[in-house]
From TrEMBL:
InterPro entries: HEAT_TANGO6, TANGO6/Rtp1. Signal peptide: none annotated. Residues 16-137 form the TANGO6 HEAT repeat domain. This is TNG6 protein. GO terms for biological process: protein secretion. Pfam families: ARM_TANGO6 (PF23565).
Amino acid sequence: PAWLRRLCGQLLSERLLRPSGVQAVVRGIMEGTGADPGSAAVAGGAGAEAAAVDWRKCDAVAKILAACPQQCVSLEEYYGLVCPQILDLLHIQDKLTARQFQRVATSTLLTMAREHPQLAETHLLRPLLGPLLRCAAT
């Protein structure tokens, strides 16, 4: 029903905007779909198929993260709150979890860069490439 969809969207959006909310949402969605973090490591054709399924799930999560919720005052505010958390997904230590989180972060970065390039440059690309740019400038 529409009311349930709205309520779930509102709860998801509220969680995303909290500290560590992106990680909690990604973890909840990926675990809730039965995704096996080590599924891409399966040998043979089954491994390739599992990896493709994993990528599709990560892309779906990325689309959720890239969409600004109605509760936000502005897209700039949303990017300011969520993008640092997306970059934090690249620093997860657990190897099995890190693979999925890095896929989600990469896909989200690409989606945001396509949809809002200036905001993505400010909130994602500059912080991500800052150390490299500083080294290249010296």
